[in-house]
């Protein structure tokens, strides 16, 4: 009866399962490095909340140095992932990649007060963003990018609070304007009931927070002096065109 | 189906290679089009992201719908197999068996459903939507392993299963997936339940046959034309990039031209589009394959054990039903299905034990869905063993006539008998 079931076939499956586990371990190791660099950048960028405005460009420059490391780490991960099996292992790096996208988006905002473009994001990481729903090699998925943007709204609402504390009363207004633009952007998406949807629902609380700050400032007439600066708010749309 | 596969297989090696190049150039050009329209404004960019996300959600929805249909039809395939008599599996008898005819017909339907799913599951998309299709895949594997076991008395190799899942898609089918098969037709109320009764068989099946036949005719119409054209093109696998890169999602006819494998017909199109295009569009065949993951295969086999249990209990009941007529049924053929019911039960038992020892050899994590099904496997095996034990013990005590009554008292369906036996087994443990 032993010819009924070929036990060697189970051996083959065992081998391939072990190989898959090994691939996963390799990816995990590489992703851990990526995560570490992410934390380094986060540590640098966290200082914007406590630093005077003049130091922000220096902080961004410092963060940008680390993005070189991120590129290397991503290349490490990309090397391990077999062709066409991106989504098989996607869950292993999707969290850190979302964080990396957020950090790039934040850096770009702090430098230019506008949303990062896809091209700039690709420049940060040295990999393409998947715009076609057909990843064959390692790419950044559009979901990861959008998750990064949601994280940005969260961070900016915090920045608005701290900017006021530091005496920068115009920043909350610019942030408020930017967040509303992002929110209306997100409203264009037909989101399913997934994690992105849940996080998108949180954006309105960030906006509310910033609006409350602006209200507080207005009520106390703290904005009157700086009204001119408000007029000169960089127009995000115009700047993106150039 | 088969006709298409047979006739185009000659041109396969030629077809697949240039195809890979075209699909790549096409995707790059599509990518560039989207890329160039980005960066205008947040609203503009987000509406592009929306389209990207929507394409993904739509595709997943389609796959989920097809999966549901596949699961449904596969379940019916299994019931049909349980209805079949052991002698039906002899090749000379299989065409007269109603149950097996039904199985074949359902099999054809399920393959078309898989064809439809395969179009959406190419490249990285296979793993992207794997979770949506894997349930259906397991159900299908369960049906096919059961059928293979009933015919050959063996476990079907994964390669044999995968060989069935190679599809040739014409451009016409690609542009209108409903021409492969329309989905959502197989979900009939009350068909997913238990029991393998004969209910509603005739009414239901007539309808099925008619719409299957339509599809078959359609497939045969395309096939001969494809051969005549594809065989004239071997020297013509010219540079695919020579075809103008046309953005996808913009204009359907142009889209067809870029996806189609390169051949002399591309140049012919330019010379005399009016004559050639209709022929060309019908004959371009794209090869779509589906692989089966090890996990799905194993899970399908794990599910099979439940069906084997049902089969064994049924067979055991049969052995008591027909003690007198046994000898007339038995021939000395090599086929497993010809032996006595007792032998068949023993064969199923040893088959199950072999499978179990195969599974036991795997080192699995507790999280693995396979280890969750191991419990069911053990239970199924236990049920058969206890049933055999009961027949042996009580068989000595009672005359076969009464014993048969006892076994069958649960009803005609094998599942009920199995339940009774399992109940006994648990009491005695």
From TrEMBL, chain A:
<keyword id="KW-0963">Cytoplasm</keyword>
<dbReference type="InterPro" id="IPR016069">
    <property type="entry name" value="Translin_C"/>
</dbReference>
<dbReference type="GO" id="GO:0003723">
    <property type="term" value="F:RNA binding"/>
</dbReference>
<dbReference type="GO" id="GO:0004519">
    <property type="term" value="F:endonuclease activity"/>
</dbReference>
<keyword id="KW-0540">Nuclease</keyword>
<keyword id="KW-0238">DNA-binding</keyword>
<keyword id="KW-0694">RNA-binding</keyword>
<dbReference type="InterPro" id="IPR033956">
    <property type="entry name" value="Translin"/>
</dbReference>
<dbReference type="GO" id="GO:0016070">
    <property type="term" value="P:RNA metabolic process"/>
</dbReference>
<dbReference type="GO" id="GO:0003697">
    <property type="term" value="F:single-stranded DNA binding"/>
</dbReference>
<keyword id="KW-0378">Hydrolase</keyword>
<dbReference type="GO" id="GO:0016787">
    <property type="term" value="F:hydrolase activity"/>
</dbReference>
<dbReference type="InterPro" id="IPR002848">
    <property type="entry name" value="Translin_fam"/>
</dbReference>
<keyword id="KW-0539">Nucleus</keyword>
<dbReference type="InterPro" id="IPR036081">
    <property type="entry name" value="Translin_sf"/>
</dbReference>
<comment type="function">
    <text>DNA-binding protein that specifically recognizes consensus sequences at the breakpoint junctions in chromosomal translocations, mostly involving immunoglobulin (Ig)/T-cell receptor gene segments. Seems to recognize single-stranded DNA ends generated by staggered breaks occurring at recombination hot spots.</text>
</comment>
<comment type="subunit">
    <text>Ring-shaped heterooctamer of six TSN and two TSNAX subunits, DNA/RNA binding occurs inside the ring.</text>
</comment>
<comment type="function">
    <text>Exhibits both single-stranded and double-stranded endoribonuclease activity. May act as an activator of RNA-induced silencing complex (RISC) by facilitating endonucleolytic cleavage of the siRNA passenger strand.</text>
</comment>
<dbReference type="GO" id="GO:0043565">
    <property type="term" value="F:sequence-specific DNA binding"/>
</dbReference>
<dbReference type="GO" id="GO:0005634">
    <property type="term" value="C:nucleus"/>
</dbReference>
<keyword id="KW-0255">Endonuclease</keyword>
<comment type="similarity">
    <text>Belongs to the translin family.</text>
</comment>
From TrEMBL, chain B:
<dbReference type="GO" id="GO:0005737">
    <property type="term" value="C:cytoplasm"/>
</dbReference>
<keyword id="KW-0963">Cytoplasm</keyword>
<protein>
    <submittedName>
        <fullName>Translin family-domain-containing protein</fullName>
    </submittedName>
</protein>
<dbReference type="InterPro" id="IPR002848">
    <property type="entry name" value="Translin_fam"/>
</dbReference>
<dbReference type="GO" id="GO:0005634">
    <property type="term" value="C:nucleus"/>
</dbReference>
<comment type="similarity">
    <text>Belongs to the translin family.</text>
</comment>
<dbReference type="GO" id="GO:0043565">
    <property type="term" value="F:sequence-specific DNA binding"/>
</dbReference>
<dbReference type="Pfam" id="PF01997">
    <property type="entry name" value="Translin"/>
</dbReference>
<keyword id="KW-0539">Nucleus</keyword>
<dbReference type="InterPro" id="IPR036081">
    <property type="entry name" value="Translin_sf"/>
</dbReference>
<dbReference type="InterPro" id="IPR016069">
    <property type="entry name" value="Translin_C"/>
</dbReference>
<dbReference type="InterPro" id="IPR016068">
    <property type="entry name" value="Translin_N"/>
</dbReference>
<feature type="region of interest" description="Disordered">
    <location>
        <begin position="214"/>
        <end position="255"/>
    </location>
</feature>
<feature type="compositionally biased region" description="Polar residues">
    <location>
        <begin position="227"/>
        <end position="241"/>
    </location>
</feature>
């Amino acid at each position: 009866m032993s010819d009924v079931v070929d036990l060697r076939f189970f051996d083959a499956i065992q081998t391939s399962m072990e190989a898959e586990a090994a691939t996963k371990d390799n990816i995990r190791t590489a992703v851990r490095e990526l995560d570490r660099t992410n934390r380094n950048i986060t540590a640098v960028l966290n200082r914007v909340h406590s630093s005077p405005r003049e130091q922000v460009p220096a902080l961004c420059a410092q963060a940008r140095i680390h993005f070189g490391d991120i590129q290397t780490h991503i290349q490490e991960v990309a090397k391990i992932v077999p062709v066409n099996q991106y989504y098989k292992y996607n869950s292993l790096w999707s969290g850190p990649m979302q964080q990396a996208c957020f950090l790039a988006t934040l850096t770009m905002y702090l430098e230019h007060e506008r949303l990062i473009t896809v091209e700039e994001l690709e420049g940060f990481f040295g990999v393409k963003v998947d715009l076609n729903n057909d990843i064959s090699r390692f790419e950044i998925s559009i979901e990861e990018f959008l998750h990064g943007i949601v994280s940005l709204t969260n961070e900016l609402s915090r920045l608005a609070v701290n900017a006021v504390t530091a005496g920068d009363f115009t920043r909350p207004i610019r942030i408020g304007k930017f967040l509303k633009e992002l929110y209306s952007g997100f409203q264009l998406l037909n989101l399913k009931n997934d994690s992105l949807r849940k996080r998108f629902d949180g954006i309105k609380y960030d906006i509310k927070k910033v609006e409350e700050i602006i209200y507080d400032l207005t009520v106390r007439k703290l904005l009157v002096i700086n009204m001119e600066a408000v007029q000169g708010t960089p127009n995000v749309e115009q700047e993106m065109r150039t | 189906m088969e006709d298409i596969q047979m006739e185009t297989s000659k041109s396969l090696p030629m077809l697949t290679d240039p195809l890979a190049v075209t699909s790549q150039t096409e995707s790059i050009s599509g990518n560039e089009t989207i890329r160039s329209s980005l960066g205008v404004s947040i609203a503009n960019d987000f509406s592009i992201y929306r389209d990207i996300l929507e394409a993904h959600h739509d595709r997943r929805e389609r796959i989920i719908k097809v999966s549901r249909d596949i699961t449904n039809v596969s379940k019916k395939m299994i019931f049909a197999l349980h209805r079949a008599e052991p002698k039906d599996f002899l090749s000379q008898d299989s065409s007269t068996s109603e149950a097996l005819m039904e199985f074949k017909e359902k099999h054809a339907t399920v393959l078309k459903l898989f064809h439809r799913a395969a179009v959406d599951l190419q490249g990285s998309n296979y793993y992207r939507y794997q979770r949506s299709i894997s349930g259906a895949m397991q159900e299908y594997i369960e049906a096919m392993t059961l059928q293979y076991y009933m015919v050959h008395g063996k476990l079907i190799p994964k390669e044999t299963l995968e060989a069935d899942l190679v599809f040739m898609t014409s451009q016409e089918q690609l542009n209108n997936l409903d021409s492969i098969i329309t989905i959502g037709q197989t979900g009939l109320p009350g068909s997913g339940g238990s029991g393998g009764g004969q209910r509603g068989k005739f009414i239901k099946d007539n309808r099925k046959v008619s719409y299957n036949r339509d599809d078959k005719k359609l497939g045969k119409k395309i096939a001969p034309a494809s051969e005549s054209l594809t065989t004239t093109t071997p020297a013509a696998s010219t540079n695919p990039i020579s075809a103008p890169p046309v953005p996808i999602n913009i204009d359907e006819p142009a889209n067809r031209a870029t996806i189609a494998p390169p051949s002399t017909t591309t140049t012919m199109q330019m010379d005399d589009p009016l004559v050639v295009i209709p022929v060309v569009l019908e004959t371009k065949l794209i090869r779509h394959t589906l692989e089966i993951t090890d996990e799905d295969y194993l899970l399908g086999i794990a599910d099979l054990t439940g069906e084997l249990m049902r089969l064994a209990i049924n067979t055991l009941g049969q052995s008591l039903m027909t003690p007198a007529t046994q000898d007339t049924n038995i021939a000395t053929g090599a086929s497993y299905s010809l032996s006595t019911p007792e032998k068949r039960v023993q064969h199923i038992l040893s088959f199950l034990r072999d499978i179990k020892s195969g599974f036991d050899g795997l080192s699995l994590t507790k999280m693995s869905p396979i280890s969750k099904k191991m419990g069911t496997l053990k239970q199924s095996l236990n049920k058969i063993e206890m049933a055999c034990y009961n027949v042996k013990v009580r068989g000595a005590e009672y005359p076969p006539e009464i014993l048969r009554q006892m076994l069958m008292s649960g009803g005609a369906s094998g599942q009920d008998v199995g339940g009774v036996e399992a109940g006994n087994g648990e009491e005695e443990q």
